[in-house]
Amino acid sequence: MEALKEALYLNLIKDDRWQYLTEGLKNTLLITLFATLIGIGLGLLIAIVRSTYDKTGRLKILSGICKVYLTVIRGTPVVIQLMIFYYCIFTSRIFSGVFVGIIAFGLNSAAYVAEIFRSGIMSIDEGQMEAGRSLGFNYVQTMRYIIMPQAFKNVLPALCNEFVVLLKETSVAGYVAVQDLTKGGDIIRSRTYDAWTPLLIVAAIYLILTMVFSHFAGNVERSLRKNER
Amino acid sequence: MSDNVQENVQENEILIDIRDLSKSFGDLKVLTNISTTIRKGDVVCVIGPSGSGKSTFLRCLNLLEQPTGGQILVEGDDITAPGANIDQLRRKMGMVFQQFNLFPHMTILENMTLAPIKLLKKEKAQAEQEAMELLRRVGLEEKASSYPAQLSGGQKQRVAIVRALAMHPDVMLFDEPTSALDPEMVGEVLNVMRQLAKERMTMVVVTHEMGFAREVGTRVMFMEGGNFLEENEPEAFFSNPQNERLKAFLGKVL
Ligand SMILES: Nc1ncnc2c1ncn2[C@@H]1O[C@H](COP(=O)(O)OP(=O)(O)OP(=O)(O)O)[C@@H](O)[C@H]1O
Ligand SMILES: [Mg+2]
Question: Which end of chain A is more exposed for a tag (fewer CB within 10 A), N or C?
């Protein structure tokens, strides 16, 4: 008991070391949140382009570009993408690591979110599109009022899962000098030479975040579904 | 439902003029040079064996399928011409599908008011009032706030019909509206359609219900192999068929 107290004191209280964790948590959440927004926005666009091509044969060139994008992003490790953005593209250091992290993880996430949305769109029965069109809605209106709301509902669990995955994936942000939660724990470890305590605390924080979020997502999903039965 | 039929219904005025209509899927010729007219107030029943092209014909009328040849004139306008406003046209042509195709994420009332509000720019209250009136006529007003999944097949199809009617179409297209229904629910849907016919709604109905075609149709057409082989008013059509294929077909189904 005494030993535990001492370990906590050494790793958290002494020299205000807990601030490494709170600062890190803040950056982790910042990156995850804004990357998710980029991921959903861009992913949605890509999904609409790709499924429009699949269904109507239009937007062929744009769809081809999207396909290449997805292949490259999903075929290479996110750490490499992150480093390319930080060391090759945004070389000027007016761009903070957090900013570069948001861009890199956002563009990465978009590729996965796009495929999630696309499978959601393609899972909607063709009759829904026909019913919308036969009432006089054009293609875009039918997508907006009829197809997308259903597709979104269908893919909500997968989207939430993607958010959780992203939250954990940002733990490599330390590679580009971002002091995220993982890096924060690591700094403490290098100061105190105690590996167990800071790493377990960091792991616990990730776990709590993902559990709380999954629980919240489950509630939202249930209340959306309730309407339909 | 008389308010769904235009005030100045000019009987016998040609509503849809089909000229040399053809449709192929790749090498498969499904419709070959069909010419016929549909006049205001007509209840045209299309019968024929499976795969003969009935659905394709119906779906060409509102361009859910793009014809590969010929012309379709709706109220004088060639809808197959490049640049024709298809979306505008479809507002005037209600369509009812075999599989209902209600929007599962919306209540019945929302299903019915979506298009009038978004496309006809109706006030929500006004659209809802009209929708409730239509629901009342098909005996489903207590289902207004239900979701499609909570309805039986027959109820869904009645909603699908009034959803189309809410756009005040000039013509209603039905593609086997009772084929997906349990037998005990067929009647309630046919009754709604019978009522519509009485109110002089122009209708094109692809159906296997020979009784309905005979009783309600003003004209029955027999399709086989992508063309109409015989058409007549119902009494003569059923009691005195001429075409050998039709005789064989009726022999099987009656
Ligand atoms: N989208 C399509 N692509 C290729 N072939 C098609 C397509 N739609 C229909 N066909 C073919 O066209 C032919 C006519 O089909 P259609 O659905 O019009 O027949 P139908 O008379 O409505 O039959 P049923 O009574 O079974 O509904 C069939 O051979 C069908 O396989
Ligand atoms: Mg058919």
Answer: N
